[in-house]
Amino acid sequence: MAEPQEESLFEAPPLAEQERMAEAILFASAEPVSLMEFAKRMPHGSSPSEAVELLRRRYEGRGVQVVKVGQSFAIRTAPDLGFLMQRETVEVRKLSRAAIETLAIVAYHQPVTRAEIEEIRGVAVSRGTVDQLLELEWIRLGRRRQTPGRPVTFIVTEQFLDHFGLENARDLPGLKELRAAGLLENRPAPGKEDDDAGPVVDENQDELFNDESDT
Q1: What is the pLDDT of residues 148-159, one digit of tens each?
Q2: CA torsion 155→137→176→199, rounded to 10°?
């Protein structure tokens, strides 16, 4: 009789119980959780992907939702109820024009090198601009290019996607939406210093901001 009991210890719990476990893990985590992390925490034989999918369906239309952030998942307030959280939001310093422009180029052209950013912008990228975005954890270092000098590339992070409510970089708004939001405008003249430079957008460069991410 002991042998069947030992085998039962390795049986996966019912899917409904796995769903409850996934829910508990998401509520307790301050950061988005990957399927690999779910698998590490849940009993052997569990199916995190099925459990999370059930959880996503159960939260549809509710005050909070299970959303995908990159390759991970998190519980977030429903977008239409965000106004209820206004008192709890934290004010952060406003990004400079140079930082906004650099961030947009990384997001739309990743993986991209510093030289490529400067080529698109038409001005040099200051170290402080890149450091600010790295400090915010909105961009990170990617793989080095297999070209002379092996320059490092930059890509956006899951924190960036999570902050703007995006599942992946392909969900980024188009050039028209960015202009409507006041984040992009035509540069009056090239050659200005980095911190004073306005967003670099040429009327003939719309296609640059419509490329899909390589990641």
Answers
A1: 889 999 999 988
A2: -90
Do residues 209 and 175 touch, judged by C-beta distance below 8 A? yes
Task: List the domain boundaries for the chain.
Answer: 9-88, 97-210
Q: Evaluate if pTM is beyond 0.90.
A: no
CB 111 within 8 A of CB 143: yes
Cα–chain center distance at 135? 15
User: Quick one: average pLDDT of 99-125?
Assistant: 88
Both tokens of residue 178?
């960015």
Section 64-85 average pLDDT: 89
**Residue 175: which residues within 8 A CB-CB, separation 6 or more?**
184, 201, 206, 209, 210
Measured distance CA(31)–CA(158) in Å, rounded: 10
CATH class of the region 9-88: mainly alpha
Nearest to 162 by CA among 66, 32, 22, 7: 32
- Specify the fold of 97-210: Arc Repressor Mutant, subunit A (1.10.10)
User: Which tokens hold the place of 184?
Assistant: 């992009």
Query: What is the SS3 assignment for 205?
Result: coil
- Give the whole-angstrom CA distance, residue 63 versus residue 28: 18
Q: Scanning the structure block, which residue is given the tokens 């490329």?
A: 211
Cβ atoms within 10 A of the Cβ of 1, count?
4
Three-state DSSP at 112 gives: strand
